[in-house]
Amino acid sequence: MNTSLKSKQIAIYGAGALGTILGAYLTKAGLNVDLINRNKSHVQGFKKNGAQVKGTVNFKIQVKALLPNEISKKYDIVFLMTKQLDNENIVSYIQNFMVEDGIICTTQNGIPELSVASIIGEEKTIGCAIAWGATMLGNGVCELTSTPDSLTFSIGSPGKNNQNKVNEVKNILEQMGPAIIEDNFMGARWSKLLINASFSGMSTVLGCTFGEAAQNKASRKCILHVIKECIDVADKANINIERVQGKDIRRLLNYNNNIKKAISYHMIPLLIKKHAKLKASMLQDIENKKPTEVDAINGIVSKYGHKYNIETPYNDMIIKIIHDIEKGTLSTGFKNLTFFNF
Q1: DSSP H or E run through 337
Q2: Rounded mean pLDDT of the chain?
Q3: Residue 1 has what pLDDT?
Q4: Are the C-beta atoms of 181 and 143 separated by less than 8 Å?
């Protein structure tokens, strides 16, 4: 490890499931990391028992944890891991605790770099797409649901003058797993958006894991339709979808005839195998009676579709169903597949 990294003041703001595991790995590597979360019980769990990582990897480590109102220093790098629902207020608050040349690396779903950069500037904004998943089990306890060989990160920035900062973020994240600096970061973001829109969207509607959604024949067809809509919209917007952990999603799952469609359909369970146990963060929000980020995930696909005159009925239906579940007029379950009989 570059010894200069150990002198960096790092914060994980919104240390939920993903943030807990990232914070545990970085702390284990000897970095100076604060895990910040507004959930008092979760923070108390950290302070009492440390961060406990279970699932495909198991370890426990004492971490530094605090509430947002307990921040008393300035950070070089802040990993923003909250939901996008209140970015304006959260980013405005965080910037008060950044050193002069500090940066925010947003790992949020969708395409959050635009909202972050609008507040702190492009030169202080870095984006990171996380390719693995986790589930909160309890206060300070999280389950890593992806296999250890899938702990990868894709990094990029809307700014042109912060390459040194991008390299710093890369070096930090590589204390956990491979981190790739993407020349085509929008393409990398769209790859993650495609996965979230299809697997997170459908598994939330159904109330199940990624693997269970992929195994059911009817829901697998819906997943494939969602992916196709994402690819069609990206193509029309001239976005070149990047590979996901070495897999060319567009080549494997795009289709223009029934034979290729059948092949793509049968490949879906194989492609998601390493993440079969993953429970979508949107589903975790539903279970905890919190609002979801569906408008920042499937909603982005729908908005792009509207802009480029590409119909997105499957993404649109996922949005409607999840909002109805949030309102309490629907519940999760495979019965919701009947809404996709277009």
Answers
A1: none
A2: 94
A3: 65
A4: no
